[in-house]
Amino acid sequence: MQNKSNILERRSIRRFLDKEIEQEKLDAILEAGRWAPSWGNLQCCELVVVQDAELKKSLSELLSPKNPGTPATAGAPIVVAVCGRPDKSGYYKGKQVTRYEHWFLYDLGLVSQNISLMAHELGLGSVIIGSFDHEKAEKLLRVPDGCELVSLIPVGYPDMAPKPPKRKTLEEFVHYNTFSDE
Ligand SMILES: Cc1cc2nc3c(=O)[nH]c(=O)nc-3n(C[C@H](O)[C@H](O)[C@H](O)COP(=O)(O)O)c2cc1C
User: Fold this and answer.
1) Domain layout of the chain by residue ranges
2) Locate the Nitroreductase domain: which residues (predicted)?
3) Per-residue pLDDT averaged across 24-45, rounded?
């Protein structure tokens, strides 16, 4: 039940206290990312932990002004930039092996969820940010060719306790045996 409540209680946190994250907690969060499942265990993920205030501010300027994650990106003690190598996931001997060419996004989603849940378990908050100028962010963080920056995860001590946003009921999205009757 403990893990279940961790899943249910995690919320996207977009405002943080002015308080550093202890190194053991940061290590535990990164370790949680390390143990995420991945395509063929090829572990396409690369993480950049951004602590530099100028870099965080520059990253926040790459989100649209209306993105609610903008202040979180500038104000969090750390922003984890989640990067991955597209050709390491869903490919065998250089050939795409299913109809999907972007399995690396799936792998990075699993890493991101592990990071978010571990942060919550340790009393920290986080928000996954996917809407920003990816090319400019890659240049800023000097992400090499062959690797793509997909999301940013500001992490810090929460300065807000949001109410849970609505979710679909199970009846609205779970299908037993076949998707439809016809
Ligand atoms: C792939 C992905 C991209 C997201 N991008 C943004 C974003 O750009 N800005 C933002 O404020 N929140 C972003 N979010 C957070 C969602 O808005 C949030 O998870 C959703 O509203 C549900 O709220 P909860 O996380 O508190 O349950 C993103 C979440 C995911 C999974």
Assistant:
1) 13-160
2) 7-157
3) 97
